[in-house]
Automatic annotation (TrEMBL):
Sites where the protein binds phosphoenolpyruvate: 48, 84, 197-198, 208
Organism: Actinoalloteichus hymeniacidonis
Membrane-traversing stretches: none
Similarity comment: Belongs to the PEP-utilizing enzyme family.
Locations listed in the record: Cytoplasm
Catalytic activity, as annotated: L-histidyl-[protein] + phosphoenolpyruvate = N(pros)-phospho-L-histidyl-[protein] + pyruvate
Main location: cytoplasm
Its biological purpose: General (non sugar-specific) component of the phosphoenolpyruvate-dependent sugar phosphotransferase system (sugar PTS). This major carbohydrate active-transport system catalyzes the phosphorylation of incoming sugar substrates concomitantly with their translocation across the cell membrane. Enzyme I transfers the phosphoryl group from phosphoenolpyruvate (PEP) to the phosphoryl carrier protein (HPr).
UniProt protein name: Phosphoenolpyruvate-protein phosphotransferase
GO MF annotation terms: kinase activity; metal ion binding; phosphoenolpyruvate-protein phosphotransferase activity
PEP-utilising enzyme C-terminal domain segment(s): 14-282
Keyword Aminoacyl-tRNA synthetase included in the entry's annotation: no
Keyword field contains Metal-binding: yes
Cofactor field: Mg(2+)
Amino acid sequence: VERSPEPTWSGPGRTADDVPIRLVANVGSAADSASAAEAGAEGIGLFRTEFCYLDAETEPTESAQRTAYSEVLGAFPGKPVVVRSLDAGSDKPLPFLTGAGTEPNPALGVRGLRLGRVETGVLDRQLAAIAGAEADSGAVVSVMAPMVATAEEAAWFADRARAAGISRVGVMIEIPAAVLTAREVFEVVDFVSVGTNDLAQYVFAADRMLGSLATLNDPWQPALLRLLATLGDAARETGFPVGVCGEAAGDPLLAPVLVGLGVTSLSMTAGALSSVGNRLASATSAQCAEAARIALRSPDPTAARAAVRESLG
Ligand code: PEP
Ligand code: MG
């Protein structure tokens, strides 16, 4: 991780020419949330609710969930927070939902929102708990679904969330099909956030858990950047908000590239906020656009990093 020489950032996120880029945090617990508030996060861009229940043998009750979520959201009264519905399965098995795990290819199986569509009661109880936590915490809550492949799935989730009383609804873009149908997805939700960890896994057919495939699962790969450019172009046409909440969002050198591709918010681990904030504050939006062009035409990740570093100075 690149460190900025002068850690001067104190929020909010903006480019050198004052274009606001919301810098928010990825959290999985109340402790994470407190550190994020301390570090100057403008809100939460990804609350991984499944992290609260990795050891749960039985489904937590609606009221237990409401309490747990309120504790996490309570660090951000009046601020935007994005709560992700349970992303169970594959690398994040939940004993009470995914059972013994007998699927031959769990990364391609019934996971994320697909599980929510089978276990609608579990999803509805979680949505009710999230709506309750908005009232308890005073945070401005959005809900977001993981592992969405089609606009139909996005619309189904949005209806369900709105029926539970949650007015702001988004989906994660982490399956290539969702990038290719982005315009239709934008019609049925209020925002999207790119999960670059899974998006890379599915673009390169490379298991994200395998260190030996890390050179493929690299957000600087031209194929991944081109997909993000496709999404960014669709978003700019309609002024649609696009966040990134995968690990890529915490790479300070990549942040200007992502902004140049059309990304309007970045969500990362609290420890990355100041270096990303500093880097963005020193680049104009024209420099971000140029960094994106340079990265897109680079032949490989090493060349892209070197050329962008050179361009941004
Ligand atoms: C992602 O896939 O990039 C993401 C942010 O979600 P997770 O890492 O929890 O799958
Ligand atoms: Mg993911």
